[in-house]
Amino acid sequence: MKKALLISCIVVGLQGATLLNAAAQSELSVGNEISSNTRNRAANLTRAIAGRVHLDEGQYVRLKDLNTRFIAEMDDLQIRFAADPAILDEQLLNAQHLYDKELAMLLRPKQLLAYQQMRSGMTAYSDMPR
């Protein structure tokens, strides 16, 4: 009985390890799908924001990750909804609101104010509702 229990525990453990490995490989492949162009655009956006908002190193890394995901999502939305401009606008606005919400959680109050001032000075954002 003890041997059967031990063997079943080993089998379950091996299956769990295999599933974790598969999940890790899946995450790696998703990360590799982001183009170098998207990564470069995210790095440039992050540098521009960091220059005005004065981020610490941890915030910089998290913002770069957020910008990478945001730009990749925006590109994906523009491809998926290219045939329907109304839905595209709605989806882009939803993505922007989510980005702003995540950014607000990342920044300290003075940093958020500096970002909002920087954003209001940009033509693409000056007419957008908040």
Give keywords.
disordered C terminus
Could you please describe the fold and organization of this structure?
This protein is an all-alpha fold and 130 residues long. It is 85% helix and 0% strand. The radius of gyration is 21 Å and the shape is globular. Residues 16-20, 22-31 and 126-130 have low confidence and may be disordered.
In round numbers, the mean pLDDT is 80
The description of the largest β-sheet is: none
User: What structural class should be given to the helix and strand makeup?
Assistant: mainly alpha
The ordered H/E elements are HHHHHH
Number of strands: 0
Q: Whole-number radius of gyration?
A: 21 Å
Task: Please work out how many helical segments DSSP would assign.
Answer: 6
Low-confidence stretches at least 5 residues in length (pLDDT < 50)?
Answer: 16-20, 22-31, 126-130
Estimate what percentage of residues fall within beta strands.
under 5%
The separation of the N and C termini measures: 65 Å
Helix content: over 70%
Tell me, what's the shape?
globular
Chart the SSEs and their pairings.
Blueprint: H1 2-32, H2 36-53, H3 57-80, H4 85-106, H5 109-120, H6 123-126
Helix pairs in contact: 2-3, 3-4
